[in-house]
Structure formats: C-alpha cells, structure tokens
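Narrative of activities, Objective 1.

The group set out to show that a structural description can be obtained from nothing but a protein's sequence at a throughput compatible with the screening campaign. Below is one input-output pair from the validation batch, recorded exactly as produced.
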Amino acid sequence: MAATAVFCRKSIQTSLQRSWLHCSAALGKAPPQAVHFPPSKGVMLQPGSFSNKVAFITGGGTGLGRAMTSTLSQLGAQCVIASRKLDVLQQTAREISSETGNQVHAVQCDVRDPGAVAAAVDQMESLTGLPNVIINNAAGNFISPTERLSANAWRTITDIVLNGTAYVTLELGKRLIKSQRAASFLAITTIYAESGSGFVVPSASAKAGVEALHKSLAAEWGRYGLRFNIIQPGPIHTKGAFSRLDPTGQFSGQMLKRLPVGRLGQPQEIANLAAYMSSDFATWMSGAVVRLDGGEYVMMAGEFNSLQAVSLKCCVAQPEQLIDEVMAAGSSGPVGPSGEDDQEHQRLLSQRRH
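Output recorded for this entry:
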C-alpha cells in the first residue's frame, strides 16, 4: 500500500512536470536551466492550518485568486470570494467546495463602488462573520502607449486596483477594529510597482499606491491586531491575464530569456506563499514586501546581466594587471582595458612598474 502511494505521488509529480514543460515549450524554447527548477504544485502548509478561519479574497473566481482560494480551502478555511461576475464566482465556489469539502461562498461585489463593498461585507458577516484573512487581489490592466490614454482609461484601472483595495481595506479594517478582531491583510501587486513600467502606467501607479497603503497601515494599525503584507509576483501564466496582455504569445517568449530560472511562475507557487504569509506561522511578519519572480527583477536591474559569455578579447588583462590598474588609477574613475581608455590604462601601468 505504502509503495503504491509513493509510486502514485511520483507519477502525478512527473505528469505535472511534463505538463509544465509542455506549457513552457508552447511559450517558446525554455532555457536549459529550467529543468533544475520544476514547480511544485502541492500545498505547502500542514492540513488544518486554517481551520476555524474565514478568508475573504477579491478577484477570487479566476487566476491567482482562484488558486489562493483553493489552497486556503484545502487548509481548512471557510472562504468568501468576491468579484463582479457572480456566475463565475458561483461555479468556482461549487468546484472548490466539492474538491475540498469546505464551504466556499460567492458574494458579488464591484470594488470600485464603496457602497457595493459595504453591502458585500454585510453579506459576508451574515454568512461567516468577519474574516481572519483578507487578500486584496482584484486587478485590471491593459497595454497602451501612455500618450494614447484617456482620462476614462486611467480611471478604469486606478478605480479597480487602488480605490478598490482602499475601499475593501477601510470597510473591513474599521469593522475589525470596532469588534476588536485581529486579521491579516495581504495585497497582490507586481514587481513593477517598485520599478515603474512604461505601457502599463495606470497599473504601475495604482499598484505602487496599494503598496504604500499596506505599508502605512502596517505601522498605524498594528496596535489593533492587524498586519499587512505584500506579494510582488513576476510573470505568472494565467489564462485571463495572458489573453489580454499577450494575445500573440510573442512577449511570453521574450520573458523566458530574462528569467534566471528559465520558466514562468505557476499560480500554486503564489498560493503557497500567500497561505504562509496569511497564516499563524507568520504573525511576526508585517509591512513586508516579498518578491516571487524567478529572479526577473535582479536580472533586469544589473547593467551587465544580459551577458551570456565573456570572450578573452574583452578581458585582455589578467586579474593581477587589473588590480595594478585599480591601485594606479586610485579614484580617478572606472578602469579596465576597453576601447579608447586602453592607452591611458597602459600608460598608468607603465608608470606603476617604473
């Protein structure tokens, strides 16, 4: 029996890895290092980690929201998912409930409307009581040159991402404070909330505001038993986001080239991190920004990171010579045998040796 169970787990894991490799191949040829970093699709925390807890997830019907809902439900949480599309929410709720045996409630809510947010929270309170976990995941985005944006286009994104997050956080935060209830708030942003990014300027601006909101409240509302954290995902392959942002698939292939681990992220990886950060194992974590991006941010940040190999012609001098140059040049500026500076470097070396 035990041997059979081990064999089954290995078979499932192998099947999942093959599925992931097939997906990566469809997006473009995966770099060879990707085989060393296969995603794990199991639930990380121990069963029952969220027993007797209520989790409220905006944008919980699809994509990352669905993955986080499924994981929290598997860990024992009673989940409430919210978005504008009630039919999608209800189908997701039924499917996850049947898989986990824990109830998932669907509550219609347009986070852009503070009145709708208040009504959704009223409905949740009547169903489950106030939540222990709040995940601000609702988002909207599209690619556009900034000079083509209308005021309405700007408002569409910032109303969902920044204002929607603020309305949910304020509505629930005030009720939790009044009831003297502790809770964990988690925001799902993006790595370009920190760096900024062209062509998605409304999203970048709004996500940066969400991060400022959560970090500010981590300081201000900690005394009420409320903690606030942030996950910055890198490129995660979800059907909805990729169909809108990369309908041809060309951009996805380029992404693989700037990911040191050689593959896109999987929703389950974000879900496991979200579960940990929202759990009782992370009660000393507040005000944290955790980047989970396969190394993309640091790859793009380093000036020479795009180099894949360095020929001997690029480094004529031996390391000992370069050390001599550094000592000879002092603080006069960058050193190294490159281009027009080479003659000056040789002159300094000659002075040093004579």
